Amino acid sequence: MATSRPIFAPLSRLAASSIAVARYTTPQSALLPLQSIRCAATKSSGKKKKKGRNTFIQYDLRKADQFSLVDAMHYIRAFEVGRNPHSSKYEVHVRLRSLKNGPVVRNRLRLPHPVKTDVRICVICPPDSKHATEARAAGATLVGEDEIFNQVKEGIVEFDRCICHPDSLQNLNKAGLGRILGPKGLMPSTKMGTVVPNVGAAVRNMVGGSEYREKLGVIRMAIGQLAFTPEEMQTNVKAFMETLKKDIAQMSDRITKEIHEVVLSSTNSPGFTLNGEFRGPDSISPKELSGPM
Amino acid sequence: MVNIVKRMRKLRELLWIRVGPGALLLPKEVSKITLEFNKHINGGHRGARKFWREMLPRIKYRNPSVPISVMRHSNDSGPAKLCIYTKSASAPNPSQSSISTPPSATPNPRNTATPDTTAPAFTIDMKMIPESQILEELIEKTGATIIEPSEQELQEMKDIADFKVRSEGDRVQVREHLMKQRREEELLRLARGEITATA
């Protein structure tokens, strides 16, 4: 204590003059050494409640470098060289002009070229009904009732999604699978939208379906496998943007949202702002980007 | 989303992928390049890994239609090889060259059923040699043409280098300022008796 005083002498002299009046106002602070009062006083006076903003900070895109789809893919493929083409994915990020506290965009769609196709789906419905054939046709891997229950009870859970038909719901509940499926998040329930009468359509939506939602004004979604050709990517991006625009139009009575920026990136590459064109004046032929990595 | 300034700076520095060692045009005969080396640098696999990280993106950028694949094993004494396959070595494949639109790269039974088993035209042993030497050997064996950076690109590269030097200086300055501030705060707290002096 004693050693640090002389160092602070000039500093305290500076601060003292302005706050000296308020020094002995509270009895508690009077007990503390002089310097602490000064500091406490400066701190409390400097603290002001900041007024929050309810929009995201927007920036001007006119100065930004923008790329056509082919150019962006040209760079991304160079960045992803030597990576496993099955683990790296193209991602699209859409920046929106919207309120921080407003409703968010959230939906699911089926891309024309699905990114992930190996989802195993289990459908619980009477095995010989017409729903079962529908589900099988749509791409379900497991269809049935009692056999599935027995399998699950033995601990064999070989599926990632589970859908149930309302007719079989009673049997499902009777079988008491909640303890096994529940923690895995596979137990069908009406609340989750996994108990549906139209099983075929639900399965079709799940196979290759992908979900997106707005977080902090940005929507991010995997949009393609690394090995996609520019044309495939174009149809995927177009399909995604159209559904997104439809979603926004649906919300237009409550809130206005606008698309500000669309960025294409991948697992190991920087983000490229797209300018909405397929290919620029001096980009390479899309054919060169269609081969294997 | 990443801050726009950060993103744009990254994009301005994209120049590194266009010019520099490895910016070369491979002759038309080269049909495929494969690399095989260890996951770790132990056992002389350092150069191979550096080559992949630094020069392969440039080669891929300049030759987007040449498939390049990297296989990595976890055996220190395993091989570190760079294989170059050429079209003349394999039997000419008329179906690939005559179709106006090339087959889709998406894995499907049509293009994954036939594995390529032709022997490589050239093989470079990358063990224990630095990445620059690997590149030299690659150029020598394939006869690739090096793309020289233009005057404008050289100027841009210089600008970026200058900027980096300046930012390093700024960083030191800011850090000094910050440390000074923190030291003062610490001393103030010490003077107030909130913490006891240990030194």
UniProtKB/TrEMBL annotation, chain A:
GO terms for molecular function: structural constituent of ribosome. InterPro entries: Ribosomal_uL1-like, Ribosomal_uL1/biogenesis, Ribosomal_uL1_3-a/b-sand. The lineage of its organism: Eukaryota, Fungi, Dikarya, Ascomycota, Pezizomycotina. The keyword Ribosomal protein applies. This is Ribosomal protein L1. It holds the Pfam family Ribosomal_L1. One of its GO terms (cellular component) is mitochondrial large ribosomal subunit. Belongs to the universal ribosomal protein uL1 family. Residues 274-293 are annotated as: Disordered. Keywords: Ribonucleoprotein, Ribosomal protein.
Automatic annotation (TrEMBL), chain B:
It comes from the Eukaryota. SUPFAM superfamilies: Thioredoxin-like. PANTHER family: MITOCHONDRIAL RIBOSOMAL PROTEIN S25 (PTHR13274), SMALL RIBOSOMAL SUBUNIT PROTEIN MS25 (PTHR13274:SF2). Residues 88-118 are annotated as: Disordered. This is Ribosomal protein/NADH dehydrogenase domain-containing protein. It comes from Lojkania enalia. Keywords: Mitochondrion, Ribonucleoprotein, Ribosomal protein. GO terms for cellular component: mitochondrion; ribonucleoprotein complex; ribosome. Residues 88-99 have a biased composition (Polar residues). It is found in: Mitochondrion.
